[in-house]
């Protein structure tokens, strides 16, 4: 699948997964895609933990409330480290966002599905801290995202409607040049 096809087919999947393990080689490809993303001033603030052990997955899924991805055979947890890069600016959010997007495209290209779970685990109840504890994440890193990975059990259904290009993108100025 080329990158444009992966972009077109990628969408958030919140359904059930087939009970089929994700090969480590595929998880490694997905992580390499994530770590190949741009990083502000090359600070490389992103770290990743792939989880494919059944018991560890049960522990992780057991602390996510309300439940998500309950049948996912694997997941990638995204860690971020706040490091100032340029003029006391930190680009950690941009770094991990770029890494996650690359991984979501890789997931799609390999025939799997996923969903970017961030707010669900990082809000006031701090599920991310419980996940980090299970995975022995050092204090200097924040667990910012949980990406389940697996083969979907259900058809994806209709893709969400996207606004037409001409309503969101222009040439040479805001709403100046028609697409």
List the helices and strands and how they pair.
Layout: H1 3-9, H2 24-35, E1 46-51, H3 54-63, E2 74-80, E3 84-86, E4 89-90, H4 92-109, H5 119-122, H6 127-134, E5 142-149
Antiparallel strand pairs: 1-2, 2-5, 3-4
Helix pairs in contact: 1-4, 2-4, 3-6
Give a short overview.
This protein has 179 residues and is an alpha+beta fold.
Features:
alpha+beta; 33% helix; 179 residues; 3-stranded antiparallel beta sheet; 6 helices; NADH Oxidase
Please provide a written account of the structure.
This protein has 179 residues and is α+β, with helices and mostly antiparallel strands. The protein has a domain at 43-152: 3-Layer(aba) Sandwich (NADH Oxidase), CATH 3.40.109. The protein is 33% helix and 15% strand. It contains six helices and five strands. The protein has helices at 3-9, 24-35, 54-63, 92-109, 119-122, 127-134; strands at 46-51, 74-80, 84-86, 89-90, 142-149. The strands form two sheets. It has a three-stranded antiparallel sheet with strand order 1-2-5, with helices on both faces. The protein is globular and about 55 Å long. The protein starts with a helix and ends in a 30-residue tail after the last strand.
């Amino acid at each position: 699948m080329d990158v444009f096809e992966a972009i077109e087919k990628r969408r958030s999947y919140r359904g059930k997964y087939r009970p089929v393990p994700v090969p480590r080689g595929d998880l490694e490809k997905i992580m390499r895609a994530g770590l190949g993303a741009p990083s502000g001033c090359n600070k490389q603030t992103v770290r990743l933990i792939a989880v494919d052990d059944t018991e560890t997955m049960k522990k992780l899924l057991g602390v996510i409330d309300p439940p998500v991805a309950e049948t996912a055979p694997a997941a990638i947890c995204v860690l971020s480290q706040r490091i100032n890069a340029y003029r006391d600016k930190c680009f950690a959010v941009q770094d991990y966002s770029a890494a996650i997007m690359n991984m979501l495209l890789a997931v799609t290209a390999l025939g799997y599905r996923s969903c970017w779970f961030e707010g669900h685990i990082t809000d006031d109840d701090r599920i991310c801290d419980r996940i980090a504890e299970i995975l022995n994440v050092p204090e200097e890193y924040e667990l910012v995202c949980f990406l389940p990975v697996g083969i979907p059990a259900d058809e994806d259904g209709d893709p969400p409607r996207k606004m037409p290009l001409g309503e969101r993108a222009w040439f040479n100025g805001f709403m100046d040049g028609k697409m």
